[in-house]
Design brief:
This is histidine kinase. Pfam families: HATPase_c (PF02518), HisKA_3 (PF07730). Its EC number is 2.7.13.3. Keywords: ATP-binding, Kinase, Membrane, Nucleotide-binding, Phosphoprotein, Transferase, Transmembrane, Transmembrane helix, Two-component regulatory system. GO terms for molecular function: kinase activity. The protein has 465 residues and is α+β, with helices and mostly antiparallel strands. Among the domains are: 161 residues, no CATH class; 134 residues, Heat Shock Protein 90 (2-Layer Sandwich), CATH 3.30.565. It is 59% helix and 8% strand. It contains 13 helices and 5 strands. A 5-stranded mixed sheet has the order 1-2-3-5-4, covered by helices on one side. Helix 4 runs antiparallel to helix 6. The radius of gyration is 44 Å and the shape is rod-shaped.
Length: 465
């Protein structure tokens, strides 16, 4: 089924007055969605519409012949072919009831009036009454212009009740009731004329009211389904966006990790290789020590890179490869080893931990410990590559008490920027991103008293991630 498509809007729009304060016309307009911009998609004529029309026509013809056999059509003066035409033409209207709902409703009302005036028993048969009901129902349920729908359907209903009143007041309806009940003893609470009029009005109120209320409920149900479909599509789009963002964030995380790992170990290897080259002929033992450091650093670097790249494995692989499976992420406990590695490349380093209570550093979340470790690793690598410093100090402070519990690492050196060694800035960017990912803050720059400072503070407790 195809047709026009429009976007639904919320049932309750901002700024709408509460229903209790609305006048009766405003309440009616609100119930029927007069000011609602949503328009129900108008479908093309489908096979189901044609089958419904044919089935209704067949049922109508059968009903017509049964009425004839019961002798209820003896007062009809029109020929049989005209009675058949009236039945078939009414059923045919159902084919286009959803495509052109208001036009079909008007045609059905005219058909009802003409057949009712000329062939009342034919119009009163059950099948045609069902056809008219469906036509009026569809006018309310499928109309796109709700204000026009109220005008058209309201005019049809008013016209029908005027016709009923005309039959009773100016026509022969009342006289026929009097003639049929002359000589019959009254047995009810009211007279036959009053009872007939009241019953006729009640039946028509239920008939037209049911078509209008049912059609409007169907329209509101369709609007709610459209809103749910739009919400589902929005959720699906947001989910895809979040998935893409998660992939991007993971790629950035891996890029930062690789940058820190490669930068640290390549820096160590470069310095140790230069030292080995200088003392290779004069001091073979020192050269051997430097080469051993190169071997250790390269092995550690390869192991950490394999651990990182293990996150990119196909999740459908049955068994992980031990050579590429992820190793435990480094943390605070690994900082002494990291600092000691820098001593082997000629940088005098010291390491200290300041805790508000014993064991506070060991209780840090793994994500916080990893972030602090990578900050120290990048800061020391930058000292080796880009500074003339001979000494560096690493201090970790953990404050679990107080109004603002936090973990902090500070790396200080006593050097100046080395000429022709300006970096790409990715190291500092990585430090700031790591701090931001933990809702922390970073301070990077030269000290007034000389040297350089890298300090990162990460909140703990409810503010930590």
């Amino acid at each position: 089924m195809s047709g026009d498509h429009s976007s639904p809007t919320a049932l309750d729009r901002p700024g709408r007055m509460p229903s209790a304060r609305l006048s009766l016309p405003s309440r009616v307009g609100e119930f029927f969605g007069v000011d609602d911009p949503w328009q129900r998609p108008r479908p093309q004529v489908s096979r189901g519409d044609v089958v419904l029309a044919l089935a209704t026509a067949a049922l109508g013809l059968v009903s017509l012949e049964l009425l004839r056999s019961m002798g209820l059509l003896e007062t009809v003066d029109q020929p049989v072919w005209l009675q058949v035409l009236a039945t078939v033409s009414a059923s045919a209207l159902l084919t286009w009831r959803r495509r052109w709902p208001l036009s079909i409703a008007v045609v059905a009302a005219v058909h009802m009036f003409v057949v009712g005036v000329t062939m009342a028993p034919v119009m009163s048969q059950f099948t045609l009454q069902v056809v008219y009901f469906i036509a009026f129902f569809a006018a309310v349920a499928w109309s796109r212009d709700r204000r026009l729908m109220l005008g058209v359907v309201g005019s049809i209903i008013v016209g029908m009740f005027v016709w009923i009143a005309w039959q009773f007041l100016l026509g022969s309806g009342v006289q026929e009731i009097i003639d049929d009940t002359r000589g019959v003893e009254r047995s009810g609470l009211v007279g036959p004329v009053t009872a007939t009029v009241a019953l006729t009005v009640l039946i028509n109120v239920i008939y037209f009211g049911g078509a209008v209320i049912g059609g409007q409920l169907d329209w509101r149900s369709a609007r709610q389904r459209a809103q749910l479909e739009t919400a589902s599509a929005t959720i699906a789009t947001q989910s895809e966006t979040l998935q893409r963002r998660a992939v991007t964030d993971e790629r950035l995380r891996i890029a930062r990790e690789l940058h820190d790992v490669v930068g640290h170990h390549i820096s160590v290897i470069g310095i140790q290789a230069a030292a080995a080259r200088r003392v290779l002929t004069r001091d073979p033992d020192a050269a051997a020590t430097a080469l051993a450091a190169i071997e250790t650093s390269s092995r550690d670097g390869v192991t950490q890179m394999r651990s990182l790249l293990g996150t990119l494995r196909d999740p459908e692989d049955a068994e992980p490869d031990p050579a590429t499976s992820r190793m435990p992420e480094p943390g605070i406990a690994d900082l002494p080893t990291l600092v000691a590695q820098r001593r082997t490349v000629g940088l005098a380093t010291s390491y200290d931990v300041v805790e508000s209570s014993p064991g506070a550093a060991d209780r840090l979340p793994s994500s916080t410990g990893l972030a602090l470790y990578r900050v120290v690793q990048e800061a020391l690598a930058n000292v080796t590559r880009h500074s003339t410093a001979r000494h560096a100090t690493v201090v970790v402070r953990v404050e679990e008490d107080g109004p603002r519990p936090h973990a902090e690492v500070e790396v200080l050196d006593d050097g100046r920027p080395r000429g022709r060694s300006s970096g790409s800035g990715l190291g500092h960017l990585g430090v700031r991103e790591r701090a931001a990912s933990q809702r922390g803050e970073a301070e990077i720059g030269p000290r007034p008293t000389g040297g350089y400072r890298v300090r990162v503070r990460i909140p703990l407790g409810e503010n930590s991630v």
